[in-house]
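Running co-folding for fe (ii) ion.
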Amino acid sequence: MELSVRDYARECAEQGLRGDYSRCRADFTVEQSYDYSAEEQEVWRLLCERQTGLTARLAHRSYLDGVSALGLTERIPDFGTVSDRLRLLSGWEIVAVPGLIPAGPFFDHLANRRFPVTNWLRERRELDYIVEPDMFHDFFGHVPILAQPAFADFMQLYGTKAAQAFELGGGDMMTRLYWYTAEYGLIQQPGAPVKAFGAGLMSSFTELQFAVDGEGAHHVPFEIETVMRTAYEIDKFQRAYFVLPSFEALRRALDRSDIAALVGRWKDAGPLDPSSL
Ligand SMILES: [Fe+2]
């Protein structure tokens, strides 16, 4: 059964998560309330300045084009302005949320081409690492690549199919698919070097460098069934990164997958060890 906003807010407070869920609507969205301090604007600028030095070399062209089109790096973005631009590019918009939200509403937003973005930013002492996703992770990491048409379609499809898979007991399998694509995905198009597009990489100063060209980074060709069966790391570098041949291949693989059959086949099997692939 789906959690009410009030029950979810209580759970988050008990876990020490810092979002303010008291003004949430039923779909877990809030107003962005653009009242960021000079210090927050400075932290945003510092994060963007440092990370764009890396993404220029390591990120896929589609991600970089998204950053230019959406204009994310000078000041903390205004969600309404970004949504207006993104709608024209790929039909997506962004909505403000206080932090993590439950799976059901999250999938519903994706299925309707709305990406939830946290409305608060990490502090200066957290430039390198933060446990909870914050605005920098959600925005700088996830939003630019939503301007890429095939990836944009994949994310909507993911929202629809993930809801179905969770009902059938395949939640872990769908989470792995998200993890290894939207969060830690790499791509290598014919004749081009490996590049990154996943948000966990885009928002990490150290892992972005390791994943793309670090010694010992384990690159595995993308295959959707294998991805859905492979365990992942939460607070360490991944032991495997899946490499797409194209965004269209990702969209097509999910579109053609019989999720009910995949879940039925693998939901009770132990996950694959990423190092063994
Ligand atoms: Fe994320």
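Result summary
The longest strand covers residues 93-97.
The CA atoms of residues 80 and 204 lie 26 Å apart.
Job closed.
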